[in-house]
Amino acid sequence: TGSGLQWLNNFFAQGGKNYIDIVAFHGYFAVDTDGLLTGISNLRQVMKNNGLENMPIWNTEGGLSCTINMPSCVAEVSGATGTVLARDLPASVQRGTIARAFAFMWTNGVSNFNYYTMEGTTDTPPLVDSSNGFDTTTNLGTAYYNSSRWIVGSSLSDAYLTPEGIYVFKIKTSANKPAYMIWSTKGTLKVRTPTSWPSAASR
After folding, report:
1. How far is Cα of residue 108 from the mean position of the Cα atoms in its chain?
2. H-type alpha helices, the chain
3. pLDDT tens-place string over residues 47-104
């Protein structure tokens, strides 16, 4: 928040920056994950103003929450008019949202992400099913696991947004193989991939 950044700036200016190893923030996101970029950008500016532009950034508490941007969630639930819960979003929307959040944080220098939810919460979906002894991974938990596998150990070759509103992330995996993350910001689109891209399974 704005007040949080002001507090952080004062903390740095008064010498606190000499006693830390990372800079942490809490970053929640709705279906419109672009909001994460603004928060991270503002945090980076405060860090840069205090000579900390090279210090690691961790998102130590975050998750999918429709309260962050309700309209972006309502648009994904058929018939919804007022408010919806992130738990009620279609499975495909939950999967896509967590993958995009991972990608945006990764490409903006966030080196650690701790997903947070709480038993009994009415919004943020859990990663495991508490009704089954916490032994069963939820749909979102599987997406979280897969997204982290794509990113951890990989490097980013290029990233851009096409005029059609499609994000393209070119990745070199930990096995030194090319991979691509693509998604549309304008709903479902049919995408023709370049013939130079290697054919592979998609998710």
Report:
1. 10
2. 2-13, 34-49, 70-74, 91-107, 139-151
3. 999 999 999 999 999 999 998 888 888 988 888 878 888 988 998 889 889 998 999 9
Residue type, 164: E
Full-model pTM: 0.85
Tokens of residue 1, six digits? 């928040």
Provide the token pair at 177.
Answer: 């193989």
Q: Which of 162, 43, 157 is nearest to 107 (CA)?
A: 157
Q: How far, CA to CA in Å, does 100 sit from each of 24, 43, 167, 195?
A: 20, 20, 10, 24
Please answer whether residues 168 and 159 qualify as being in contact, where contact means their C-beta atoms are separated by less than 8 angstroms: yes
What stretch of H or E contains 62?
A: strand 57-62
